[in-house]
Amino acid sequence: MENGKEIYTDFCVTCHLPNGKGVEKAFPPLAGSDYLLNNREASIRAVKYGQNGEITVNGITYNNSMAPLGLTDEEVADVMNYILNSWGNTSEEMVTTEEVARVQK
C-alpha cells in the first residue's frame, strides 16, 4: 500500500485531494465512491489511459478530463489498491498487475 500511497501523492492528490474527497462538480471523490465500487474495470481504465466524458459519482455528474498518467501496470494496480482501501473504502479483491494488463483502451 505504501507504493500506492506514494503514487497517489505524486499523481492524484492535486485534483482528488489528500482526503480523496475531490472537488464537487469538478473532480469526483474517490472516498466513499459508488463509481469505484461498481465500475472496477472502468476505474482501472481511467487510471491507465485517462478519462474523458461524463461519469456519475454518488449522484453527481462530472464531465472533466483526466490525462493519462503514464503509469506502468504495476503502478496502476498499486494506486488502485491504495484508493480502494483508503478513506473508508474497502475492497476484498486486490487489483493485480495481470488484471490491469487485460484492460484495454
Mean pLDDT: 96
CATH superfamily: Cytochrome c-like domain
* Beta-strand percent range: 5-15%
**Quantity of strands, as a count:** 2
Gross CATH architecture: Orthogonal Bundle
What is the helix fraction of residues, given as a range? 40-55%
Indicate the CATH topology. Cytochrome Bc1 Complex, Chain D, domain 2
In sequence order, what are the helices and strands, one letter per element?
HHHHEEHH
Distance between the termini: 26 Å
**Poorly predicted segments:** none
Strand order of the largest sheet: 1-2
**How many structural domains?**
1
Largest sheet: 2 strands, antiparallel
How many helices? The count is 6
What structural class do you assign from the helix and strand content?
mainly alpha
CATH class: Mainly Alpha
Backbone shape: globular
Computed over alpha carbons, the radius of gyration is 12 Å
How does this structure look, described?
There is one protein chain. The protein is mainly alpha-helical and 105 residues long. The chain has one domain (2-100): Cytochrome c-like domain (Cytochrome Bc1 Complex, Chain D, domain 2, Orthogonal Bundle). 45% of the residues lie in helices and 6% in strands. The protein has six helices and two strands, in the order ααααββαα. Strand 1 (55-57) and strand 2 form a beta hairpin. The termini are far apart. The model has no long low-confidence stretch (mean pLDDT 96). It comes from Sinomicrobium pectinilyticum. Residues 1-87 form the Cytochrome c domain.
